[in-house]
Each structure stands twice: as C-alpha cells, then as structure tokens.
Amino acid sequence: MRRSFKFLLRPTSKQAVALVTCLEDHRQRYNAAPEHRRIAYAKAGVSVRYGEQSAELKHIRGDDPGGQGRWSFSSQQATLRRLDKAFRAFFDRVKTGRTPGFPRFKGRGWFDPVEWPKDGDGCRWDSQPEHPASTFVRLQGVGQVRVNQHRPVRGRVKTISVKRQGRRWYVVLSCEEVPAEPLPPAGAVAGIDLGLASLATTSDGAHVADPRHLAATADRLATAQRDLARKKRGSTRRRKSVARVAALHAKVRRQRLDTAHKAALALVRAYDVIVHEDLRIANMTRSASGTIAAPGRNVAAKAGLNRSILDAGWGVFLQVLAHKAESAGRELIAVNPAGTSRTCARCGHRAKDNRVTQASFACTACGHAAHADVNAAVNILRAGLALRDAAQAA
C-alpha cells in the first residue's frame, strides 16, 4: 500500500531564502520548457518531448553552475515530467473533443511544489538519525532542514516533495510498502448520505455535524479582502495583505481536513462496509451564470449553494474515507445517487412529492415518514449491498 506523510518544515532564515530560490529556478525551468516546444513547432514543425528537453538539462546546468546547476538534476527532471504530463493531458482532451486548456506559464505564487523522485538522489530523509529528538531532511542546495515530525513514517520512502503554502513550508513523503493496519470486525454496515445540514448521515440515524469553517471565517476573510483591494499592486503592503488572506484560507483548509479525518476515522471504526454516493462534485458546483446570449437563472442562489457544497468538503471527506478504509481493511462501495432522496425506503415508491421539505420525507403511497437524509442513507445502503451481492455472484 502507498501512503503520503506531510510534515511542517522549520527552516532557518538562510534556508528559507534558499528554498524560495530553488522554487523560483524550478519555475523558470518549467516556463522555459513550453516556450521551447512552441517555438520548435512554430518554426520547424518539430514536436519536442520530455526526452529531448531532459537531455538538454546537462548543457543548461553546465552553462549556469551558480543557478540551475545548484539544484538536483533529478528534481529538475521531475519538473519537466510534470510539464509533459500537462501536455499529454491537453492532447488527450483534444482527442476526446473536450475543452483543451493549453498548459499555462506559471506566474509567481502559482508554482509551489518541487519533487525529488528518489530518496538519496539529491535529498535524504532523516539525514541525521544520531539526533533522537529532532528529524532533518537534506536537500541539495539548501542543506539540513529541521522537520516537525509529529507521527512515525511507515514503509519505504519513495519520493520527497517540498511544498510552500502561504508562509509555511512542508515536506511530503510518498512511501511504498506501507503495512496495512486492519481493525477488528465491527459487525455493522452503513450507508451514508452527504448533505449540507449535516456533513454525513448514516442509515442508522447518526449525524456528522458540518462545522462550516468557511462561513465561520467569512467576516474576517471579507475584511481582509477589502483591505487587499485598497492596496497598490506591487507594493509591500499589498504583499502583506495577500499573505493575510492566504493565511485565512489555509486555516480553513486545515480545519476542513481535520474534520474529514475525524469523521472518516469514526465511520471506519464503527462499520465493516460503508456505502456512499458516487457524486460528481465538479458538475454539481458548476456556475449558473451562463453566457451573454443565454444567461442563467437564480445565479445568486446557485452561487450560494456552490459555496456551501465546497465549504462542506465532500470531495476531501470521501478521499480521506477511501484511504482510511483501505488501511483498516474495510469495504467501501460507491453507488449511483439518482433517486435515493425521492424513493421510499419502506415500499420503494419514487416520487418528487415524497420529499416534503429539506429535512422531512413522507411517502405518498404508504405514508412512511422519516428524516429525509436517513431515508436516503437506507436506500444507498441497499443499493450498495445489492451491487456487492451481484459482484460476488458473478
């Protein structure tokens, strides 16, 4: 099994400057690569790929030993592979008729991670094991950087990445051969219905609260954004305002992730089989603004709904739940959510009028009444168990 471990870095002032310089040089290398591809195709009709650009790195580093030559060769190759992946995704979208989205140049502040593809090649995790109270990671061109390791690392470290988030620096370890940690059987199964009033509602009637972290920070965020709007572009005061807004968003992101981890862990400990809706969140949160010729309706209401869905963090929660279920040996099943909120869990009658209000369900055929989310969760559980039985029979 493969897992990632993320830790806060504690660089010195000089190391922080070196990290910023490393990030900037990798960003310039990333931006130079698509320009090379564009010019080669426009002037000579030649398609330049990753292999050719990787081979040129040796000459680029030799001509600039104090700049590009300071950093790990492997990390620069990883940056070029990242660009190549973006180009391959672009051409795949063109072939399938979707909106292409040509790979863009990365401006300052839009290029945050640098990856070292192999532990020991330009980087070294736990580079000073003789220090029992502290952990260090060695990065070529930066030095021995202290790590705030708050939990043990399991498995074999495969890749090491350094990521900037606001004013903080993090190291992300991708580990292979991580041993599973199966939990004892719980003897229970559950379906979960994701919502806005509650983050999740189980088929046995339990509700997981939705803290609405973004809504709780909305006033402070609005004040910080108004303050940012009054600052002159390029000024020191504007950079400080940008950092203040970014710090508030980062706090909301951390709070949302913490909620997802706690809620997912509670579900994994309580149930052997968990069935959830296979939601298309990107489609659900599309803008209703439309076009000039065909403007959308209820744009403000749809924007508020989209904000609430994204604030709930369904995608983060389902991703964390999948990882924890795999590690604990639990079974996770995704089902089509169509009709689950309008179908009676007792008689199976499906009608729009069954959903009396957002929270109440009353079947127009048999009179069954229940909490709407609990009724939907029961339908989700039945659909998931039916899928499992059909797969086992096949």
- From the coordinates shown, what is the CATH architecture of the largest domain? 2-Layer Sandwich
Helix content: 40-55%
User: Biggest sheet, strands in spatial order?
Assistant: 2-6-7-1-5-4-3
Tell the overall outline. globular
What is the ordering of alpha helices and beta strands?
EHHHEEEEEEEEEHHHEHHHEEEH
- What is the first-to-last residue Cα distance? 27 Å
Q: What is the overall pLDDT average?
A: 92
CATH class of the largest domain: Alpha Beta
Rg over C-alpha atoms, rounded to the nearest angstrom: 25 Å
Number of E-type strands: 14
Give the count of helical stretches.
10
Structural class: alpha+beta
Overall number of structural domains: 2
Largest sheet: 7 strands, antiparallel
The stretches of 5 or more residues where confidence is low (pLDDT under 50) are none
Which fold name corresponds to the CATH topology of the largest domain?
A: Nucleotidyltransferase, domain 5
Indicate the proportion of strand residues.
15-25%
